[in-house]
Amino acid sequence: MRGQGKGAFAVAPDVADFADLLELLAELAANDREALERFVGGLASPVRRRIHDEWGWQAHGGQRVPADGGDWRTWLILAGRGFGKTLAAAQWVWERAREFPGARIALVGGSSDEVRKVMVEGPSGILATARTGEWAQWTPSLGTLRFSTGAIAFAYSAEAPESLRGPEHHFAWADELAKWPRGEAAWDNLQMTLRLGERPRAVATTTPRTTALVRRIEGDPATAVSRGRMRDNPHLPEAFRAAMAALYGGTRLGRQELDGELIADVAGAIWTREVIERARQSGTLPREGMKRVVVGVDPPASVGGDACGIVVCGEGADGRLWVLADASVEGMRPEGWARAVAGAAEAWGADRVVAEKNQGGDMVESVLRGAGAYLPVRLVSATKGKAVRAEPVAALFEAGKAGLAGCFPRLEDEMAGITHAGGYEGPGRSPDRADAMVWAMTELARPARAEPRVRCL
Fold first, then answer.
1. What are the structural domain ranges in the chain?
2. Among 129, 201, 385, 446, which residue's Cβ finds the most Cβ atoms within 10 Å?
3. 141-150, 168-177, 296-305: which range is least confident on average?
């Protein structure tokens, strides 16, 4: 951005000092990017260079260093791609080099090549984030980076954990540790090198993956965790963010790589994440392509209590079964969730509603009737445990005979939390959505009978 020539501001108008200026810039960055560009464009070049060098006001959310008074040894930035993890860590390394001129800093990546291309020479790496007048000299043959402040950083590859035996460091940056080939050995050796100075610390940056090392570091009481999503970064082009959301939004890949969620497979899960992803079809399917449509309902146990699972499933022309919609609601009284059931049935032209009656017996049918719609309702009793009921449906998914017409994150999390042993390790107290889906799928797997479509008054 260009200044306004001779009339450009030496300092911003109505700003008492530089600290106030940075505070104003941070406010504009958070609320009005266009106003920020106009404002900065009116500043003199020396002022623009100085504010560009100040990282703090430009950082967003999880890019900010945990409080200095915090008793942490590792700062774990667990965030999606494009969040700005590399930039935050590179700035943190520079801050340590300025604060401790004699500091020895370890730079550890998945490979020597990744240390060079991402951490040192990358567009958000250490060389690119030097302030005006600062420099760092990178010597690839030695794997050393000498800062103009006097600090020195040493490059290491996680492929060779033994190279971390012997050296000593004040600080460390560990990048993308979720994909380190020999992760735990490299991390343990790195920890043993952090023994210089009064408070050795490390920053670890990674896109979440459910590795033992990531779970271990995240659960360590000496770890401060920052989380974030790609869309938290206001500097990314909106077109790119929209494209990524359209391609991967709601999928396991998108939730992990873009939203920074740590998604783990539960031991003994009836539905693994791999099976769920393999069963997914992008985009919704129309009612016209379905031979039958059923709405499954898992009523809440108490008024205004748990969620009411309401899931719409259909049988395609080829006999494959599909999850079409998750219309579940939470915190509603019986008349409220009954209206939601009636609405879902009407919207999808359902042939039948299947509802579990254990939680309220005939009350379930009466509240559905009271919602103002005449619905073909089949009440079912849960004589078997949730896992036993779910296993035949899971087998349909495994065999490619059932699938998901789109993304249903909350339903999928519940499916992935039901175990063969009869336990549940998903979100919430009970898999209400998954249970409703199982009832609907079970009904569709029964031989078809002539039924009138749902009729609403």
1. 5-58, 61-232, 273-456
2. 129
3. 296-305
